[in-house]
């Protein structure tokens, strides 16, 4: 008969180390004990073959080691990359990401947020579609909430990784202005409830300063939806000579629309994105875009949520600064 060795208990680890079961539990969780004690306890646990049962550990500690990641739309390739990075970074910290997709629907987003809370995740990272929803304040009272991209209305989150959208917009519009473009279309997924309103606030302010005519329209972060929005913007007389997109996947929709309409990029329409997704450099022509350092965003968001969960001091707000990558999708107007 196969040897089915009995699972070692925490009491056996305590006896081997001369500590109390409570001290062993603290050491295994990395709290209220010295690093030397934690190393000694982990070594004894490994030698004895002790493994904490996840359900029992969650009941004892009040933690599940799960962090919810609520994505606005995983049809957006940049958000897919962000989710992958956050999942791996959490795993490196001994935690697991529970990733859910709102599919661009604010009502679905709120329903999923409630479900993650009810599943007792230790914390929540969200890329909010509706940052003004009252639910965020309620959630922040129940668990640590860290937002990416937009601040939650009223500063209700315990942490936020936000983008310096004014600088990002300025880089893109100044680049297009310097190339001689004066009529710029802007495609944005931003809804009316977004407090920062980067499309309406920053685009119009910077366009006025630069002497540009900015034409703003809403486009979903999906290839099909953004292609339809680009069709409406470009399939008419007096169309913009350049289109600035608040997501690279929206820019991909502009490429698709220009192909359908027989327009050339950048000869007929210059195109600028806002994510610097790796695919953007592989397009024909390669896409000019604004980069936000996705690795830095991942590191900041994961550090913030883990520090809140662990009760460590932290910076509450991290602001990401942009860099413009000028590529062949933009060239002088009329060239």
What does this structure look like?
With 335 residues, the chain is of the alpha/beta class. 44% of the residues lie in helices and 16% in strands. It contains 12 helices and 12 strands. The strands form 3 sheets. A 6-stranded parallel β-sheet has the order 2-1-3-4-5-11, with helices on both faces. The longest helix has 17 residues, at 294-310. The N and C termini lie far apart (81 Å). The model is unreliable at 1-5 (pLDDT under 50).
Give a quick precis of the structure.
With 335 residues, the chain is α/β, with parallel strands linked by helices. It has helices spanning 10-17, 21-29, 35-48, 54-61, 77-92, 106-118, 135-142, 165-178, 198-210, 223-234, 248-261, 294-310; strands at 66-71, 96-101, 123-126, 145-149, 159-163, 183-188, 213-218, 242-245, 270-272, 289-291, 317-320, 323-325. It is built from twelve helices and twelve strands.
């Amino acid at each position: 008969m196969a040897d089915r060795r009995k699972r070692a208990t925490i009491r056996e680890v305590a006896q081997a180390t001369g500590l109390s079961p409570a001290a062993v539990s603290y050491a295994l969780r990395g709290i209220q004990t010295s690093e030397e004690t934690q190393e000694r306890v982990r070594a004894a646990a490994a030698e004895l073959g002790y493994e904490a049962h996840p359900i029992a550990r969650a009941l004892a500690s009040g933690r599940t080691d799960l962090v919810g990641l609520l994505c606005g739309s995983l049809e957006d390739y940049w958000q897919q990359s962000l989710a992958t990075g956050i999942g791996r970074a959490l795993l490196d910290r001994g935690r697991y990401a529970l990733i859910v997709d709102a599919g661009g629907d604010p009502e679905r987003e709120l329903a999923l947020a409630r479900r993650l809370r009810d599943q007792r995740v230790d914390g929540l990272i969200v890329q909010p579609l509706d940052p003004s929803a009252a639910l965020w304040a309620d959630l922040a009272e129940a668990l640590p909430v860290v937002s990416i991209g937009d601040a939650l209305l009223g500063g209700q989150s315990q942490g936020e990784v936000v983008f310096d959208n004014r600088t990002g917009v300025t880089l893109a519009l100044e680049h297009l202005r310097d190339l001689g473009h004066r009529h710029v279309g802007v495609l944005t997924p931003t809804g009316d409830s977004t407090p920062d309103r980067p499309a309406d606030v920053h685009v119009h302010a910077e366009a006025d300063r630069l002497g540009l005519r900015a034409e703003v329209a809403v486009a979903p972060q999906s290839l099909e939806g953004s292609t339809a929005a680009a069709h409406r913007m470009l399939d008419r007389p007096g169309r913009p000579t350049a289109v600035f997109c608040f997501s690279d996947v929206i820019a991909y929709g502009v490429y698709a629309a220009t192909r359908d309409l027989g327009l050339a990029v950048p000869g007929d329409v210059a195109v600028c994105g806002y994510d610097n997704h790796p695919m953007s450099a592989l397009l024909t022509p390669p896409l000019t875009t604004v980069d936000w350092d996705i690795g830095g965003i991942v590191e900041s968001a994961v550090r913030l949520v883990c520090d809140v969960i662990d009760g460590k001091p932290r910076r509450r707000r991290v602001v990401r600064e942009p860099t413009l990558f000028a590529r062949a999708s933009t060239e002088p107007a009329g060239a």
